[in-house]
Amino acid sequence: MISCRRLFSNSAIHLHENPLGLPRQKTVPPQIPRRTGPPAKRGIPNVKKVLAVASGKGGVGKSTVTVNLAFALAMLPSRLRVGILDLDIFGPSIPTLMGLVHAGEPHLTESGALLPVTNHGLSTMSMGYLLPKGIDTAVVWRGLMVQKAVQQLLFDVDWTGGSGGHGLDILVVDMPPGTGDVPLTLGQLVNVDGDKETDVKVGSVIVSTPQDVALTDVKKGISMFRKVSVPVTGLILNQSHFICGNCSTPHYLFGSPDRFHEAAKQMEVDVLAELPLVPGVSKDGDSGIPYALSGWNENEVGGKIWNEAMKGVAEKVWATLQRPPSHVTL
Ligand SMILES: Nc1ncnc2c1ncn2[C@@H]1O[C@H](COP(=O)(O)OP(=O)(O)O)[C@@H](O)[C@H]1O
Ligand SMILES: [Mg+2]
Questions:
Q1: Helix, strand or coil for residue 232?
Q2: Which ligand lies nearest to the CA atom of residue 278 in the structure?
Q3: Does ligand 1 have an atom closer than 6 angstroms to the CB of 53?
Q4: Of 88, 184, 258, 308, which alpha carbon lies 20 to 30 A from 39's?
Q5: Atom 17 of ligand 1 has which residue's CA nearest to it?
Q6: What Gene Ontology cellular-component terms does the record carry (predicted)?
Q7: Which helix or strand (DSSP H or E) is residue 260 part of?
């Protein structure tokens, strides 16, 4: 194992082809076609199932849900091996939420794959680990650069590292907001049906808040995943209500959840949970200890509901991903 060298120090041409600056690997990952022809799809090495967590808008709690859902999955009785992949290239927040801001650069295997960075018993990979530290570095990429970086993060991570050499039962992917290059690349390159030995079964969860501005984008998110043949496992309404310490009545601070349920029905997608607004969820996220781990205190009534709802989502998602391939036709 060697230490990953500092990134973004390569020539422009090298950067374009290899944005993460990884050494050449023996196995060539699938390539995005330049103009025509279908891309070569494949599974993600050492990963059995993938769950993409997406949203139409930023700031709705997608990364928070990703991390807490990953722990809820890991805590199911089947004791799944779970990893988190942060594909939010422009705004990675998994290092913060996992308490890994000072983790340093990932190590590389001898064949040049990235080794996941682990905390609280979960393996993670994020663009955040690959940016030079100490300055406010912004990724200013578009088009092919983003596609290539996503390709490297999908196929050039050795998920057997950090999971006792076994690989992962499920990889939870924190997607960037909106309908851009990243979901397209995922849909183009990853075999989603899980019907061959090398395939990986993929599902997705779309997170929204109750406001109309967020809701409009949920429909776009569903339609985007359908276009790239990634099955939508269900929707999560986050910050749906607030329960104060003095009463058990839900306060719908951002409006009634009815419109969200109507939209879900219209689009024929299940609602997996309504998650309350819980101050501790935010506080613990900022301090790098996911709420699923830190537990809840009695003054925070919504916290218990949050954790139970998250457990319910984990059970539903895992059950759905066990089903035989759907053979989505478009
Ligand atoms: N249910 C919730 N209760 C309290 N705070 C929340 C909840 N969901 C998200 N937050 C907070 O909202 C902010 C945005 O969440 P984040 O997960 O970063 O959103 P996104 O990934 O969609 O941009 C964070 O500060 C997070 O802690
Ligand atoms: Mg985020």
A1: strand
A2: 1
A3: no
A4: 88
A5: 61
A6: mitochondrion
A7: helix 258-266
- What pTM, to 2 d.p., does this model score? 0.90
Q: Cα–Cα distance between 114 and 4 in angstroms, integer? A: 8
Nearest to 230 by CA among 263, 185, 270: 185
Cβ of residue 236 lying under 6 Å from some atom of ligand 1: no
Q: Which domain holds residue 281?
A: 41-322
Whether residue 6 lies inside any domain: the answer is no
- Determine if ligand 1 sits within 6 Å of the CB of residue 161: no
CATH at 93: 3.40.50.300
Inside any domain, residue 64: yes
Instruction: Among 217, 282, 304, name the best residue to mutate to test ligand 1's pocket (greatest count of ligand atoms within 8 A of Cβ).
Output: 282
Q: Is residue 284 part of a domain?
A: yes
In sequence order, which ranges of 80-235 are alpha helices (DSSP H)? 94-97, 144-155, 181-189, 212-227
> Mind listing the pLDDT tens digit of every residue in the chain (330 residues)?
555 544 444 433 446 677 787 876 555 566 655 555 666 788 899 999 999 999 988 899 999 999 999 999 999 999 999 999 999 988 899 999 999 999 888 999 988 899 999 999 999 999 889 877 655 666 767 678 888 889 999 999 999 986 678 899 999 999 998 878 888 888 888 887 765 655 568 899 999 998 877 788 888 899 989 988 889 999 999 999 898 877 778 888 888 889 889 989 999 999 999 999 999 999 999 999 999 988 777 778 889 999 999 999 999 999 999 876 654 443
What phi, psi does 214 have (nearest 5°)? Answer: -80, -40
Ligand 1 center from residue 65 Cα (angstroms): 8
Our count of domains for the chain comes to 1
Which residue minimizes the CA distance to atom 6 of ligand 1? 282
Q: Does the CB atom of residue 58 touch ligand 1 within 6 A?
A: yes
